[in-house]
Design goal:
Strand order of the largest sheet: 10-9-8-7-6-5-12-11
Number of helices: 16
Mean pLDDT: 90
Largest sheet: 8 strands, parallel
Helix content: 25-40%
Structural class: alpha/beta
Distance between the termini: 24 Å
């Protein structure tokens, strides 16, 4: 069995599951496991080993402490257990499975653990990522941006040009990008500029209407057709007919308008264009929403991906210039996969992936103050535990139990109670209390010694197992670890 935490068996009925835990969490684990056993019809046994905190368990330690004869079908271990589970399985001759790290996730783990994870590898919406004002940038910076955009999921790199001028180095830049196996488009109405780019290998031009139709028909490249009158999609008819008669490839873009400037009406025009031209490729410039709306963009991108997927809009033009949209390309990459899965599998885009749940968390686990007080009375060591409830922060060890919504006041309470801290412990508590306050403010989950979750932007932190200094190893609170 590999160490990637394989799914639960599909049928648990009649099987015996043995849950390993530590002393401090034994009661909580027993309560949850009994409920699960009744629901899923398995026999449950709890094995409480001689360790206070299950997060500190390691396979090497378990090899010494587990009984030789385990009468069970599956050994369920704490999610924090470190080491090679294969060695443990060979020793006990029983299949081993890591549960989730958070004890409150155990019911959900059993509910969904036997389900196959959603396959989000498929998409059919192309991302065209624009480098704005490309002529003003050094070639080296354009290359770095293009490679970064491609790594985030862009399929085409669009070079945004500057109206009223000709970029004489455009062919050089296009050649450099193509040499790096990148697909290139150019956003320009300048005939000389576009011709240079196409001759160098650009495969798409944004855009075409009556103003450049005559020479566009003579250039063998794919075009994006836009309306002559933005409010009337039928003004694309002539450009469509002329390009088609000259054997040119093209896609249409009715133009997405910003909120307050015809946003709803522009969405209606996309739907109308799909009815009018059911088979034509279509593009949407979603940057007009993400760049021009001062709000987090991940939700916008998923909504727009769903709209495009349902209407058969096969490409989007986006960019990430303004700071709140700085990860827009990667967001849409996640969004287009979820949208494809939801529509083609006829399921809601829910519980598929948490990559785009960034400000909040998919599910909130709030500490119970009464349980924390009970837990505090069991603590026999000086290590500090930090927890977050719906409206307060908590700091506790064998010497005290302090609570406040302000980390400064909480710290002062502890100092007034006589606790002594060296600089390392003070730094540690300050860092963790800062994370805890952020979690309290945003309604996020806080797990001591673990990074807050920011969706695909989450930056893992060193766990309590990885810290170089033993004094930083502070035991976790009961709601944090599966079998603590």
């Amino acid at each position: 069995m590999n160490q990637g935490t394989p799914p639960l068996p599909t049928d648990l009925k009649g099987k015996t599951l043995l849950f390993v835990t530590g002393r401090l969490a034994s009661e909580s684990v027993t309560t949850i496991v009994q409920q699960l056993a009744a629901k899923f019809h398995f026999q449950a046994e709890i094995l409480t080993l001689g360790i206070s905190v299950a997060a500190l368990m390691h396979v090497d330690w378990l090899l010494r402490k587990l009984p030789e004869d385990l009468n069970c079908d599956l050994l369920v271990l704490p999610g924090w257990v470190q080491g090679d589970l294969t060695r443990l399985e060979e020793h006990v001759q029983v299949a081993c499975l890591k549960g989730p790290k958070n004890i409150l996730d155990l019911p959900e783990f059993f509910q969904s653990g036997s389900k196959t994870p959603a396959d989000l590898s498929t998409y059919d919406i192309e991302i065209i990522a624009e480098i704005n004002h490309a002529p003003r940038l050094p070639v080296s910076e354009i290359i770095l941006l293009a490679e970064s955009f491609a790594a985030d999921g862009a399929n085409v790199i669009d070079l945004g040009c500057i109206p009223g001028s000709t970029w004489n180095d455009v062919s050089l830049v296009v050649g450099e990008l193509i040499a790096r196996d990148l697909v290139v488009s150019i956003d320009s109405f300048n005939e000389d500029e576009v011709t240079l780019a196409v001759d160098a290998g650009a495969s798409l031009v944004l855009s075409c209407n009556h103003t450049n139709l005559a020479w566009a028909c003579q250039l063998d490249v794919e075009w994006v057709v836009i309306p002559d009158d933005i409010h009337d999609i039928t003004t694309m008819h002539h450009s469509i007919e002329q390009l088609a008669s000259h054997g040119r490839r093209f896609r249409i873009d009715p133009i997405l308008e910003p909120i307050g400037f015809g946003f709803a009406a522009s969405l209606q025009r996309y739907a109308a264009a799909r009815q009018l031209w059911p088979d034509l490729p279509m593009m949407m410039g979603i940057g007009n929403l993400t760049e021009l709306t001062e709000a987090d963009t991940s939700g916008m991108n998923l909504l727009l991906a769903g709209f495009c997927q349902e209407l058969g809009i096969q490409s989007v033009l986006t960019t990430q210039v303004i700071n709140w949209a700085r990860t827009a390309i990667k967001e849409f990459d996640f969004a287009r996969r979820q949208a494809w899965h939801a529509i083609h599998k006829k399921t809601l885009p829910k519980h598929l992936s948490s990559d785009l749940v960034m400000l909040r968390d998919p599910k909130r686990h709030s500490a119970n103050p009464e349980q924390l007080e009970q837990f505090a009375r069991q603590i026999k060591d000086p290590n500090y535990r930090i927890a977050v409830s719906d409206d307060a922060l908590y700091l506790l060890n064998r010497d005290g139990f302090w609570t406040d919504s302000d980390p400064f006041d909480l710290f002062q309470q502890a100092i007034a109670a006589g606790i002594e801290l060296d600089s390392s412990h003070a730094f540690y508590l300050g860092y963790e209390l800062c994370k805890a306050r952020t979690a309290l403010t945003l309604g996020k989950n806080y797990v001591q010694d673990e990074a807050l979750s920011w969706g695909f932007l989450t930056c893992p932190e060193k766990s309590i197992h990885d810290r170089d200094r033993p004094q930083f190893r502070h035991s976790a609170t009961p709601q944090q670890n599966t079998h603590e």
